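Batch job 17 of 40 flagged for manual review because the log was empty.
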Amino acid sequence: MQVVADLCAEVFVGVDWASDDHAVCVVDDAGRNQATFSITHSREGFDRLVARLAALGEPNRVPVALERPDGRLVDRLLEADFRWACNTRFRRAITTFADNSRHESPWAAAIYQAAIDRGCDHPHAVRILARAWIRVIYRCWIDRTPYDPARHGGARRLELTHGRREVA
């Protein structure tokens, strides 16, 4: 029987699902970005991902978070013994929150609109906004402080740039 400490991951991998290319982000256990790259939605791309993940450590110590519970990429990761997670309740909750926030928060609206302007469709733009909110929520959690729009750096920068008094 493995000791629980042996199962602790030193890195975590997130894969942002898309139809042609998948963005991959590797962070350490402190949440610091260690690598970002993309892979094509092909057997070669999946093999490249598995090879890069294998260089990070034993497959059972490199958890991979995906937006999908199935598909060729998931099958390839499972063949290589990588763990994967798809918390659909959390994804639904955070994307719903993000989608609603863009109607009330100028900061959130600006992030969403910038994604749309870059050519992202609505669901992808909402996921980008959700990722931004997760960073804000994580910082509040780590600092053990409630969210305060006046202390939110991104919202303050937007206020200075656009002269808005309301910030999210």
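Reviewer: the log was empty due to a logging misconfiguration, but the result itself is present. The chain has six helices and five strands. Unflagging and moving on to job 18.
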